[in-house]
Amino acid sequence: MATLAVGIDVGTSSVKAVALKRTGSGFALKSVSQADIRRAEFHPEESPQSIAEAPLRALERVSQDASFARKACAFAVSGPRVAPRLFKFPSIPKGEVEQAIRFEAEQIIPFDLAQAALDFVLFDEAMEEGKPVMEGLVVAVHKEEVDKRFVLLKSAGFDPVILDIDTLALANAFSETEGLNERETVALINIGARFTNLSILHGTRRVFVRDIATGGDMLSRAISEIYGLDLPQAEKRKREASYTPLDDLEGGGGGFADDFGGGETEGFGETEGFGDTEGFDPVDDGNEEYVLLDSDQTGFESGDTMTDDAFAASGETQSGINAAQRISANRAVLADAMGDLISEIQDTFKYYINRRIIPRVDKVRLCGGTAKFPDIEEFFAGQLGVPTELWNPFARIEMGGAAGKYPPNFLDELGPMMAVATGLAMRAL
After folding, report:
1. What number of other Cβ atoms are within 10 A of residue 145's Cβ?
2. Whole-model pTM?
3. Beta pairing, strands 72-77 & 131-142
4. Which of 14, 197, 303, 398 is 20 to 30 A from 53 in CA distance terms?
5. Is the pLDDT of residue 204 over 70?
């Protein structure tokens, strides 16, 4: 195995790269890099040729770091041309497994296997009605998708040697950094720009994966519609809300700074496993003025006077109103943008639970750039009925000298975006 392992995650909106070194106790971070990919919908001023070359240019910026340039790397693909499927059949001799899985794949994979790269993993043998059965996950990836990514990485100066899929890289990062409990089911939700990767880990030997065709771009569109901004402005505001201390945001965009602040929110009630939960009701038209109320619209006339006690009470009330406005605004945007995603995740949970493949979902961990959006953890927890937290895979990786290369808090901010790249870098090269 290489002493330095590199993972390259080429997403829709950015390239993420992680270089790790295996240590006696786990992994040490050696370097990390991220470069945005300019896209036509958010950069209409760019020429079509510039947009077409944007992924290559982003990779070239990453390769300027000597930790990544001309290094062997693991890479991954996701989307509609990646088909992961569960399989199950009666236990058979090991020598017959591969042929049986290929026959099974031909029945369940939605494209010609002659045009696909195919691999599989077997779960622990199970018993059904007193008889042993073999269960596992088979994955087919269309060769055109692999070739396109391979050529792109080669053109940027990388040496791609291991192919993975985003959802399994995500699961790998979690199992290597957090460990797995045999009696616990964890759902990892990596919210990308156009796709969301969902990995459900049940114990140490079972993983169920799915790509969902919606993501953070829907949040940008919701901000655009609700606040009357064009898409480039909405994308900028989304990023500012995610990565800037919210109290420091400047005004503009219809009082966006005041409306998109943070604040404490009501938690979710305890639930036993996954079940139907009371959903969040989007803010209706009757509350729109309240949600978008500017901070100086207190109803206090300039000619009025206040005692010290009344002034203090007014300040506390106004502070509470502002906090409620910010939370309501964030939840309204999330409800508008994430409704389809929540429904798809709920349906996936119910599918596995109803078929007794998993007993329940015990916890949800969010990652990806959109997972940094204010109040999103509370929103997902309330919608899914499952305790939800932001996941930073760097939290359990030794930083060593790498921390000194970057500004304070940089790795904490970047970490949730780097889960797939981290999982790829943990593959044996």
Report:
1. 18
2. 0.80
3. unpaired
4. 197
5. yes
